[in-house]
Write a structure and sequence with these properties.
Distance between the termini: 60 Å
Mean pLDDT: 82
Length: 79
């Protein structure tokens, strides 16, 4: 059974991961993840299995979250 883009997006959102994090874990660009989720490009069976393993394995998700780059805070300008 082939996963739909809508299901992929729903699972990703349920885990709280960003498209960029999924892309990094799967070795693709965030644009590719976006195309899958919008139904522009089909999801291969190997990607489907890797994605499902990723969202079902809490340790993998935690590892991605731990590697999430911290956002830089903008310094306020003093006048």
């Amino acid at each position: 059974m082939t996963m739909s883009g809508a299901r992929m997006q729903a699972l990703r959102l349920a885990t709280g991961l960003y498209g960029k994090e999924i892309a990094a874990a799967l070795g693709v660009t965030d644009e590719t993840v976006s195309r899958w989720e919008r139904g522009r490009v089909g999801i291969s069976q190997s990607v489907e299995y890797a994605f499902e393993a990723l969202v079902r394995d809490p340790e993998r998700v935690a590892g991605i979250r731990a590697a999430r780059p911290k956002r830089k805070r903008k310094k306020s300008k003093e006048f």
